[in-house]
Amino acid sequence: MLKRTLGRFLRQLWRLVWRGVLLFVLLSVALVLLFRFVPPPGSMVMVERKIQSWINSEPIKVQRQWRSWDELSNSAKLAVIAAEDQRFPVHRGFDIVELRRAWKTSQDGGRLRGASTLSQQTAKNVFLWSGRSWTRKGLEAWFTLLIETLWSKQRILEVYLNVAEWDSGVFGLEAASRHYFGVSASALSDRQASLLAAILPSPRTRSASRPDAQVERRSQWIAQQMRNLGGVGYLQRL
Q: Is 86 exposed, middle or buried (0-12, 13-18, 19+ CB in 10 A)?
């Protein structure tokens, strides 16, 4: 009797788990398909920052204005690729070359560095929370595969530039351009674009309009990488 009861319970539990997984897959595919055509209303990082501000009793006003691909500076598009993911046009969401380099560096005694692509960062920012748990990394891989399959490279970069965090409460290239330089996202110069890209690793502790020595050096490196890539003509590869 106990054995039959246990067997029945396990079968019911398996059906429940299977249906939950199937529902998650269907909903996530539907959501990614929707955002292929419709601008995401926000991102999970924005939600996270809002919740943190309420918990810490430090209210923030989220600044963000969606801009389409043609309204975004080509210099900024190229600067972000040069800074964050130079193999963006050719990989399928995961940069195996950078992953191997990061692993080798850690094996040689160096600090384990990230090798996150623009596709992974977009998936994380739009759909997931911050953190380094295996659960979140697994979900990040799933959403990365989805957007690489269902979106174009151009769409991935367009969404990324509209959800990336550039300061406390400042999200997206339009808000960042106005926040730091008082210009629209379409009017950024090469210099301004490289400075914005330079602060992306630590956007809430660095400034594009008042760059310290580290930001300045990184900005100059990014500008050189932009030239090495062949200028904005590189974007045709997307």
A: middle
